[in-house]
Amino acid sequence: MNENQVIVSGSMHPELARKLSESLKVQLASCVIGKFPNGELRVRILDDLAGKTVILVQSMSGRPQTALIELILLADAARLMKPKRMICVIPWLAYSLQDRQFQKGEPVSAESIAKLIDGLDFDHLILIDLHSNLVQGYFKTKRTEIKETDIFLPNLQTEASQNSIAIAPDSGAFRRTNLFADALHIRLVALEKKRNLESGKIESLMLKGSVIGKQCLIFDDVIITGSTLSKAAKLLKQRGAESVRVFCTHPIFAPGSLGKIMSGNIDEMTVSDTVPLPPKLKLPSLKIVSCVPAVADDLRSIMASFGD
Question: Which EC class does it fall in (predicted)?
């Protein structure tokens, strides 16, 4: 057990913090997180953090507003104990999809959240598979980003074949899909999507290239309703694809969406555990690959850079 480091977990994804604690052989601090009678959040860290490297873990799915306030309060509570340094791991960054102003009168939410987190004065920040390059650029805190390839590529290198083809479901996914295509030495085909900004509905989806007889591998950062994914899989099968497999880092499924997604044309879906999945969720075609090994490796590199 490394007694110079300690993990502090918010309430959003304690299972991930526990797995990280076991992987790094680092203590998981005891915390009390509740509410005052007036509904305001109350946090208390029960272990002494003085002189230690604190690794604060907080994903932001499900209840993003609560997650953000918890993060702010836990960071302040930890800093008041005078730790040696503080590192923050945010597996899923809330509000990161609003990475630019799409319509007049809207905020750039990702930039606003980045400013709040910068104000917590962490020594290092670990983020996972951000929605776009824009989001990382909004932060001033020293940071690293774990890519989707860091999580899924180790398994895919033994599973992909020359009959596989990488599919970018939209222009935003082209960058990450190209990383997989290059690493696996397979061809890339892109889908072109047009979405109505008012309703959010997809108006058209076009395929640029042939997928006849191919094992299609779709790569995306986040699934919420799965509307793009379902339409893409249907189109690929209509165009002669042999199979459709999906790889997604952040499975933020809207209520009732997963059943609809998996009842269609998707043969298999592999997701990561950056956000908690319902414990009763068991589908034979749904696989989970943990992000913990990639996060643990990144933390070891950061500690080494600090001389720990």
Answer: transferase
Boundaries of domain holding 29: 2-146
Per-residue tokens: 268:
């298999």
132 CB-contact burial (10 Å; exposed 0-12 / middle 13-18 / buried 19+): middle
Q: Are residues 250 and 159 in the same domain?
A: yes
Tokens standing for residue 155: 């398994």
The number of C-alpha atoms within 13 Å of 221 and in the hemisphere containing its C-beta is 23
Tokens of 281: 């969720």
Q: Give the sign of the dihedral formed by CA 61, CA 65, CA 68, CA 71.
A: negative
Measured distance CA(164)–CA(187) in Å, rounded: 8
Q: Report if residue 36 sits inside a domain.
A: yes
**pLDDT grade for 263, boundaries at 50, 70 and 90:** low
Can you tell me the distance from the alpha carbon of 74 to that of 17, in angstroms, rounded to the nearest whole number? 14
The identity of residue 192, as a single letter, is E
For residue 203, pLDDT over 90 is answered with no
Q: For the chain, what is the mean pLDDT?
A: 90
- Cα–Cα distances (Å) from 290 to 171, 207, 213, in that order, read 26, 31, 31
Give the residue numbers marked as catalytic.
Answer: 193
Same domain, 96 and 39: yes
Separation between Cα atoms, residue 130 and residue 192, nearest integer Å: 21
Q: Please state, in angstroms and rounded to a whole number, the distance separating the CA atoms of residues 76 and 74.
A: 5
Query: Does the CA dihedral 95-119-70-31 come out positive or negative?
Result: positive
Average pLDDT over residues 205-228: 86
242 token code pair: 């042999």
What are the strands, taking DSSP E only, across 151-230? 164-168, 187-195, 202-208, 215-223
Domain termination site, one of 127, 146, 165 = 146
Structure tokens at 168: 């970018």
Q: For tokens 């990561």, name the residue.
A: 272
